[in-house]
Design a protein that fits this description.
Helices cover 50% and strands 11% of the residues. It is of the alpha+beta class. The chain has two domains: 154 residues, Cytidine Deaminase, domain 2 (3-Layer(aba) Sandwich), CATH 3.40.140; 159 residues, no CATH class. Strands 1-3-2-4-5-6-7 form a seven-stranded mixed β-sheet, with helices on both faces. β2 and β3 form a beta hairpin. α7 runs parallel beside α9 and α11 runs antiparallel to α12. The protein starts with a strand and ends with a helix.
């Protein structure tokens, strides 16, 4: 899975720096993963995929190489997070061969197990020999400290990040009780659209959350694709973080049958804000509730292809590339 990122100036000069950069740019500490940091791309992005078993290595290489070539990446660094030294050597060998054959320079490749890092490109100047581990601890690294100052939250794992979207049973029950007696708002389509627009815009601008009545009414309304798109049209890169906060609250309060729309909208806002890992978590939540939800499929394609948020077109031209977002 590839993820466009918001530009962050972090100059890594050592393996220790690289290991500190990864959780900051991803938003969580990877486990059993392959991470690719890219440099010189037309649009900044980094990527993480699950560490593949040997039979899936060719597919994993393609998943990382395709967007790198599409965005004219010149240099990459790979970090493999695993205790399995043999698998790391196999995967990194396939990656290095494919990328260098394609003209992409592999600056560094490391394996990290949470305590030690190991070189996967033996023979580099100053690098320890293969199998020789070097202790690392990035908890007090300057990149981590800067992330805190910048308000960037780093979670202990992807599961921990996904848990920030977990629904809260008592809050879900409160909204469900109201939703059972509502159709989503005023009866006329124009009035419904106006209500959705004003409600979402007001809360996003003020940084507030909907009460149970508003939440139930809004979630019921969003079952209509046209009304969901009214809320979608309010998003922009400059307000993405505020939309993330608003839709995260609604996801955590949404009954299962009303979850797809707010989850997809949360994911889109996260993508616009350059938080690809959170966007993927929202896609997973949406597709668990409705595997065929169109907007989640569009969002997953944006993420896989590392489409940068700068390409978001308020006139809806993403539809021309990825199809109907129903």
């Amino acid at each position: 899975m590839t993820t466009p990122t918001t530009p962050t100036t972090l100059v890594a000069r050592s393996p220790q720096d690289v290991l500190a950069v990864v959780p900051v740019v991803l938003g969580f500490v990877p486990q059993d993963s392959v991470v690719m940091l890219t440099f010189g791309a037309t649009s900044a992005f980094h990527a993480r995929i699950d560490l593949p078993p040997p039979q899936d290595v060719p597919e994993a290489v393609t998943l990382l190489l395709d967007p790198a070539l599409r965005h004219l990446v010149r240099r990459v660094v790979f970090v493999l997070y695993t205790d399995d030294a043999g698998l790391a050597v196999h995967v990194s060998g396939a990656l290095v061969a494919a990328f260098e054959d394609a003209g992409v320079d592999v600056v560094e490749a490391l394996r990290a197990d949470g305590h030690l890092w190991f070189p996967l490109l033996p023979g580099r100047d100053g690098a320890p020999g293969r199998g020789v581990g070097v202790p690392y601890d990035v908890s007090a690294h300057r990149f981590v400290a800067q992330a805190v100052v910048d308000g960037r939250v780093t979670h202990g794992s992807r599961d921990e990040l996904a848990a920030t979207l977990s629904r809260v049973p008592e809050r879900v029950a409160a909204v469900a009780a109201v939703a059972a007696g509502t159709s989503g708002g005023p009866g006329q389509p124009a009035a419904q659209a106006a209500w959705v627009r004003s409600t979402v815009a007001r809360h996003v601008a003020a940084g507030t959350v909907a009460d149970d009545g508003e939440a139930a009414r809004l979630l019921a309304a969003l079952r209509e694709v046209g009304l969901r798109d009214v809320a979608w049209s309010l998003m922009g890169r400059e307000t993405a973080r505020d939309h993330v906060a608003f839709w995260t609250d609604l996801v955590r309060r949404s009954p299962a049958d009303l979850l797809p729309a707010p989850a997809a909208l949360l994911g889109f806002a996260a993508w616009l804000g350059g938080h690809g890992a959170l966007a993927w978590c929202a896609v997973d939540a949406c597709q668990e509730a409705d595997p065929d939800y169109g907007l989640a499929d569009i969002l997953s394609q944006l993420l896989v292809h590392a489409v940068p948020p700068t390409e978001w077109d308020h006139d809806g031209r993403l539809d021309d590339v990825f199809g109907d977002p129903a």
